[in-house]
């Protein structure tokens, strides 16, 4: 009887690699969303200021 081949999977990252070290942002996905949101906010603010004071 032949046994099924064992599925090899990529090693999962350790808890230390997944931790951000930031209070309130527990995952890297949330850090990316916050950075993207701040970037969009800055672009919108600069656009508004340019149109308002030009």
Summarize the structure.
With 54 residues, this protein is mainly alpha-helical. The protein is 56% helix and 0% strand.
Describe the structure.
- There is one protein chain.
- The chain has helices at 15-18, 28-53.
- It is mainly α.
- The chain is elongated, with a radius of gyration of 22 Å.
- The N and C termini lie far apart (80 Å).
- The model has no long low-confidence stretch (mean pLDDT 85).
Topology (SSEs and partners):
Layout: H1 15-18, H2 28-53
Protein traits:
56% helix, single chain, 54 residues, elongated
Following the backbone from N to C, one meets helices and strands in this order, namely HH
Radius of gyration computed on alpha carbons:
22 Å
Distance between the termini: 80 Å
Alpha-beta classification = mainly alpha
- What sort of overall outline do the alpha carbons produce when their principal axes are compared? elongated
Task: Give a quick account of the main beta sheet: strands, pairing sense, barrel closure.
Answer: none
- Give the averaged pLDDT, no decimals: 85
